[in-house]
Structures are given as C-alpha cells and as structure tokens.
Amino acid sequence: MYTIDSFSASTRLYGLHPLMRPFARFFLPELRSVRRHLATMKRLVKPLVEQRLQEGAEAPEDMVSWNLEHSPSALRTDIDYQALQQLQASFAAVHTTALLLTNIIFDLAARPEYIQPLREEVQTALDTDGGIITKATMSKLVKMDSFMAEVQRFNPPGIMTFNRATTGPVTLTNGLHVPKGTWLAAPSSQIAMDPAIWDKPAEFDGFRFERLRQRPGMSGKYQVNENHPVHLLGSPQMAGFG
What we know:
Shape: globular
Low-confidence stretches: 232-242
Keywords: Iron, Metal-binding, Monooxygenase, Oxidoreductase
GO molecular function: heme binding; iron ion binding; monooxygenase activity; oxidoreductase activity, acting on paired donors, with incorporation or reduction of molecular oxygen
Distance between the termini: 17 Å
Number of domains: 2
Structural class: mainly alpha
Order of helices and strands: HHHHHHHHEEEEHH
Cofactor: heme
Radius of gyration: 22 Å
Oligomer: single chain
C-alpha cells in the first residue's frame, strides 16, 4: 500500500500549483496514509536496528542489515532514516515485481507448451535438494530463468529506462563529454528488439537465454539477475527490480 499511496500522493500534488503543495501535504489523505506507513515501519524497524547495533550481535543477511552497513555513520541510529530506507526498497520492488509476474502468467497462458518443461525442471530441482527450496535450488532453474528473461524482453517497463541526470561533467572512455545536468536514458524497447543483438527478435523464444548460456564462457551470463548492457530494461538487471 505504501507504493500505491505514494504514487497517488505524487499525482495529487503534481496537479496543484507549486505554491500550494507545502500546505496541501497536511490535508491530502494519500499523504496522511504515507505518513502512517512511515510510522508503522518505524515501530517495526526500531527494535531490529537496536538489536543489530549491539556489539557482538549476530546480524542475519537481510535488508535491515544491508541498510545499516551502507548507511552514513551519522544515520545508522536514525530510525526515521532506516524506516524510510525499508519503505523505499519496497517502493522499488513491489510494482516492478508485480508487473513481471503478471506478464509471466499471461505469456505462459498464451504459450502452454512451456508449462510441462518448466514444471519438470522445478520438480527435478526439488527432488535433488530434498524438497527444500534454497538459493542453490533457484540456480538450477535455468529454463525458468530463461523464460522470465524472454518475458521481460518482450515486455519492457517503458520505451526509455535507466533515466539519470549527471551531477557533474563526465568524459566517457571514447572521449565523449557529457556536461553537468544532462539527462541520459537507455532505449530499452529498441535494445530488446534489435536484430543486431538478438536472433529473430520479434519471435518469442522462452528458452533463448538457456541456449545463450550454453555457449563457451557464457554459463554465468544472460541470467535474469545478471548485469549486462542488453539488460537495461528497467535497471541494470534484466528483471528491472529497481
């Protein structure tokens, strides 16, 4: 709900005159909901942060620990900041994950021939790992990973993604100078359908990326979470999770 309320509040504020926005934020129900989400997250994260900051306390590998590790030293004990970091992580992950999952379901329903081989791969991986799903189990789902990547290739989150503005002048390795304040973006939809990159790009091939990974030296490439220039479909990662 934080993501939905944040988008709704942003839309409402954008429709107001800039001079009215500082005052409207106290009255918009969407912004009151956002503040309630922050208050709830502060209540939930406060005991976790205090526990993790205790000397010698064992810290599990989760988002709370990651945020503490990468926070500026002055903000590690700032509960407002830590709570907001948790909400921002969910903000980036909820709608992108839901979008990808929705597209996977629709594309799989439209192409039922993929259901059986994907199901068999999952069952084989589970049998190998004693019926317990672990990170190692997920790495065995090569066909599943390939199908997800192809779905994302066919359904990029936008025409242009990875939108960024330079905060200072940048000179690229090819000598191109990019002044401060320049907006940059990756043409994800064009990359996804570029015949110079993909064989028969207009044809849906659910196991395309599985075959690409079978090439010599490519076993760790072309995964749905692998950084690669052709994966600029929402983020440096193929799944576009933020």
